[in-house]
Amino acid sequence: MASGKRISVSIRPLHYADIPACARITSDAFSVDPHTIVKGLGREPYDMYTISRSDFLNTLHRKTCIYVKAVDDETGEIVGHAGWSFRGLDPELIPWVGPGDAKPEAEEQAEGQEKNDEPKGEDRKDDRNAEENSIDRLHALEDADMQYWLSNLVPTDTPCMFVRGLIVSPQYQSRGVGSALMRHGNAIADNLGLTVWVHSSHQAYEAYKKFGFETMRELDLDLDEYAPRAPREGEEVMGDKGSRKWGRYVIRYMKRLPREGGTAH
């Protein structure tokens, strides 16, 4: 178990060779998230390792996305990662570095199958003959709310940044890693004069609030309304484990205004 002692980390560009480690960090971090556990009870696979790995492979090369890793200065281990995408900004202004290695040949994606830089709901098969179940309804609700956020709350005529993800390995949480990643992204936004938007998990809300993000919209979910079964012994829930309830989970759409003195227009 981690000691809780703060560690020194370096923020470095993320490479293709780092993808398996970073995808595993994402999977481990979300494995104790009740919202993710419930979504994994649906008929469609919801494997956070696969989702994270696919997103990296599809977007790591794009010059409208910045990805970094947090490396423990003492051990050289990757202990966290983060990514941001940009909308409406001249690409020449984006401080893109990109991966320092080549994309594995076996992972080359067919042209035209890349994902958009903006956050959006997960892609799933359109099975019109299958009866919609409760997890389908949960996905549909979240997808619709995400699209409302992007269409109605985020100005389309103003350049901005989106947090694509900011994940810390469970063994290194509360040790300064997340703060280092947060400061890195905020510094980019301040330098460019950009508002940063994030679709925050329930657990990350306080951290984003600490670093200047303000809640603009909430989606309050009663997980028990959608879960096909009650939580089993040992599974993480939002409240008392003895209640046999998953509990309420709040997704927050948040923004952070840039400090004065930015350069982007």
UniProtKB/TrEMBL annotation:
It comes from the Eukaryota. This is Acyl-CoA N-acyltransferase. It comes from Hypoxylon rubiginosum.
